[in-house]
Amino acid sequence: MRRIKLPSSTPKADCTFAYDHPNPTNSTNKALQCASSLRSSFYGTAQSPSSTNPINERIAIGHRETVFGLALSPCGTYLASASQDSTVRIWDVASHRLLQTLQGDVEYECLRVAWHPRGGGRYTLSTAGADGILRIFTASKCVDDDDKLIWKLVGSQDHYRLLNEFSEDRPQIYSLEYVPRQSIVDDSNGTNQTFADDEYYYLIMTSADDAIYLWNVQSKNKENEASSIDITSHSVVQFEQLGQNQFGGPRNPNNAIYIFDTACCKDYVGVALSDGTCRVLSVHDESRQCVLSLPRESELGGHLTGLSWNASGGRLVTCIACGKVVLWSIQLQEDGKLYSSIVAVLEGGHEVMRPLFGARYFGESEELILTWGVDGKVCVWDAASQGAVTSPICTLISKPDYPVYALDYSTNNKSSDSKGCLVIGGGSSDGGFLGVPMYLYDI
């Protein structure tokens, strides 16, 4: 295993942004049009979410406890969900019908799911949770029913044993994401290599420690079906504390380092840390790195809870535990270094001092940003915002008794006549008689 320890002298971001920016921009026409179209699919001509229930809402019930993670398959046909009830469940999106239950260790909750990006009617799903074990399943067609998939466990990796920890506390896995091997340099022999084989991917994983882990994931195919999968370690990137100038919020006064979330785009990986910083680094060139850090004395201080890139890799959106959102510009300059600066601060949509759990760019040209959190809201923002923005374009979903922990969407759902689907998961730890619902919306 190749271990990389990033120095504490990593360049800082430009944080000269004034919190009371005098010239916030109005929402662009493109963003308003995209938001109007999205909102009309939820409410038609209704003026606010509180005036009516979404007309496109469907409910999937099966989990007994909180849903922490979910992901739509690349084709938009299937939904995978991970729950506190120790199961991962597979759903048909068009009918919101439960198809399969994958049982994990009953003593530990399931936290994350990630589909392999390949298409062609072949499905590979990675799952992970509080037991520290990465599991990979593949699906094959049923002999008697072509529409039915049979799921099989084809690979696993025990992160707990890898770390040689002998305590009772297992390293919970907080994030999973596939990254194409062909976009990352393999320097194991000192040379740059690219891979045309789209079956070969890295799986980036983080757990309750101070490092991100890159796994080589390669399937062994037999008659177009993966009979087994090799999971081998490629490298580990470890982060250090940056000193007492950082502020991880009142729940982390000592700035202990552990990772909440990661997001990848092209060559870059963004890592949200508990000390209130986001570290950005190039997987091609480890010398290209920077720290996105908010001033300790500002009202924005606190740990980061989620982040997301736009498609070009030039913009990054980060969520803060205090309920605010910060947009960053990330640029590679001629000197070969990464430079970053704050572009906008978004607030007023979510309840103050209540954590946000994620953000995603949305729209054909990424005109919008969707954010969600413990207040049960999904808010819509202009992705081209600048300055201090005090309210979203609209609130798309509002469920005060349903904290939203996860959101995903697909705009290429080929299994129905709809253009796509947006789904949210969360809820309380007690599902009652019926269980904890997930909500699906045709868009």
Overall body shape: globular
Radius of gyration: 21 Å
Question: Could you tell me the mean pLDDT?
Answer: 82
With strands numbered from the N-terminus, the spatial order across the biggest sheet is 1-14-13-12-11
Between the first and last Cα atoms, what is the distance in angstroms?
44 Å
Count the strands? 30
Structural class: mainly beta
Residue share in β-strands: over 45%
- Number of helices, counting only DSSP H or I runs of 4 residues or more: 2
Biggest sheet features: 5 strands, mixed
Which ranges are low-confidence, i.e. pLDDT below 50, for 5 or more consecutive residues? Answer: 14-23, 183-187, 190-198
In percent, how helical is the residue content? under 10%
Quick rundown:
The chain has helices spanning 29-43, 159-162, and strands at 2-5, 57-63, 67-72, 78-83, 87-92, 97-103, 110-115, 123-129, 133-141, 149-158, 173-180, 200-207, 211-222, 225-238, 259-265, 268-273, 277-282, 289-293, 304-309, 315-320, 325-332, 338-346, 356-362, 368-373, 377-382, 387-389, 394-398, 404-410, 421-426, 436-442.
